[in-house]
Amino acid sequence: MSAHAQRSGCYRTPQVHDRKSAGGSGARCRASEHSARLRGPRRPGEPPLDLGSIPWLGHALEFGRDAASFLARMKEKHGDIFTVLLGGRYVTVLLDPHSYDTVTWEPSTRLDFQAYAVILMERIFSVQLPHYNPSDEKAKMKVTLQHRDLQALTDAMYTNLRTVLLGEPAEATGDWCKAGLLEFCYGALLRAGYLTLYGVEASPGTPESQAQDRTHSADVFHTFRQLDLLLPKLARGSLSAGDKDHVSSVRGRLWKLLSPARLAARALRSSWLESYLRHLEEMGVSPEMQARALVLQLWATQGNMGPAAFWLLLFLLKNPEALAAVRGELEHTPRQTEQPTSQMSTFPQKALDNTPVLDSVLSESLRLTAAPFITREVVVDMALPLADGREFSLRRGDRLLLFPFLSPQKDPEIYTDPEVFKYNRFLNPDGSEKKDFYKGGKRLKNYCMPWGAGHNQCLGKSYAIYSIKQFVFLVLTHFDLELVSADEEIPEFDLSRPRCRPEWTNGRAYGAVC
Ligand code: HEM
């Protein structure tokens, strides 16, 4: 699969200011001096600096167009650590997966995860929270997403996936129904995820209340999707006047749909929602601002699962051998739970934990398509030791960026034919999970990082994995699924589309880290 667009061949040669070439010459030098003056002279031990040819902007345009190709080109030129100028910000890029742990386990007093998040919260979702304390918020979320309440969330998700997927009239008639695969996957997971976290019409559910759940969650999804499609432009500040009007009307509608007053009447609200609302109340956040924060959270919690499930299903539909292997594995799952498929009202974690083929397929499709920018704000001047013994100086106020999509995920030294989908790549011959991957002759700890790593690894990882598995299970056991144009190439992977939580990921979604 070609995962990202080919670069056009018309780049201007960028400027490199390393210790040897810092003098430069002629016209190329003027732009660099301009930027260098803003920053002050280079200091000993800093990574190679590449300012690009446009004053202040540096490489921002190329980065915004196709971050993966740009970073691959820079890696070729400078190796696995370098600093680039992106729209007035100096961003040090580290692409050595053996050294990622040094960054992801660094305390936030040195490398901060949250600072830029607050700016994005305001820029994209118009959320301003007084006395906002990210650590406090995270501690509260952790309990409700990971430990105590994970089983309850997983059970509720299964029920809601069934409501959304199996209750639609088209499904009941048994007719073929033509739909876009992305909208189908995104819609089903977001609607069920919304009902799971934000509550349902009634408990116990009746056919009428479930029909209402379907109508209401479809309204939330379609409204949300209009905003979602404009988010890249919104984050970059490049909305047209017409787009701006559209964004404000869609956002206004979502704020109404998710207002605390409307949510108050909902049944089976998750402990995540109860805890988050309490947290907002304790901070003295007004009901209007609470609604905005709830819209932000809808995107943050639901923005990735649908696209991840889309890629997984697409790879399965394109690879009959993989599809047969997954089907074979899932056929045995109900027997493990001693329930016939059609009557399974829950999908126990024990059964969900015992699907190595599906796990491998999920890891492989995330390896090929999950492209988070893992960014941290450099809070103090500091030394960054790399795994190979080298040490580099980082400057306070700069930004640090890891891009695991390039390495380890697409690194040919780690994965043979890294562009190719191999459903059993993460399986050993005996069927157990394969975990040993090597680079430079050394075993890698971080060989695939769709969920981040270290202190800020995804808190929703288990919930997301269980939800995606349940979705795949329901789709494969209750639907006949065919691609309308089976010969069509797999679409290019669009790195400018939202991937992950904007407030936690410093705009990784938007091809911008500044
Ligand atoms: C396929 C789905 C998902 C993917 C690929 C994904 C990916 C990520 C990544 C890469 C990070 C780390 C960011 C960094 O270190 O810079 C992250 C953080 C986070 N994710 Fe997810 N995520 C997914 C689904 C979810 C869901 C469903 C939830 C919640 C219901 C969630 C909640 C979080 C939270 C709270 C954090 C921040 C952790 C912290 O503050 O340290 N994620 N996610």
From TrEMBL:
It is a single-pass membrane protein. Heme binds at residue 458. GO terms for biological process: apoptotic signaling pathway; cellular response to hypoxia; cellular response to interleukin-1; cellular response to interleukin-6; cyclooxygenase pathway; decidualization; embryo implantation; negative regulation of inflammatory response. InterPro entries: Cyt_P450 (IPR001128), Cyt_P450_CYP7A1-type (IPR024204), Cyt_P450_E_grp-IV (IPR002403), Cyt_P450_sf (IPR036396). Substrate binds at residues 123, 129, 304, 399. It catalyses: a hydroperoxyeicosatetraenoate = an oxoeicosatetraenoate + H2O; prostaglandin H2 = prostaglandin I2. Keywords: Endoplasmic reticulum, Fatty acid biosynthesis, Fatty acid metabolism, Heme, Iron, Isomerase, Lipid biosynthesis, Lipid metabolism, Lyase, Membrane, Metal-binding, Prostaglandin biosynthesis, Prostaglandin metabolism, Transmembrane, Transmembrane helix. Residues 1-49 are annotated as: Disordered. GO terms for cellular component: caveola; endoplasmic reticulum lumen; endoplasmic reticulum membrane; nucleus. GO terms for molecular function: heme binding; hydroperoxy icosatetraenoate dehydratase activity; iron ion binding; monooxygenase activity; oxidoreductase activity, acting on paired donors, with incorporation or reduction of molecular oxygen; prostaglandin-I synthase activity. It is found in: Endoplasmic reticulum membrane. The keyword Lipoprotein does not apply. Pfam families: p450. Its cofactor is heme. Its EC number is 4.2.1.152, 5.3.99.4. Catalyzes the biosynthesis and metabolism of eicosanoids. Catalyzes the isomerization of prostaglandin H2 to prostacyclin (= prostaglandin I2), a potent mediator of vasodilation and inhibitor of platelet aggregation. Additionally, displays dehydratase activity, toward hydroperoxyeicosatetraenoates (HPETEs), especially toward (15S)-hydroperoxy-(5Z,8Z,11Z,13E)-eicosatetraenoate (15(S)-HPETE). Belongs to the cytochrome P450 family. This is Prostacyclin synthase.
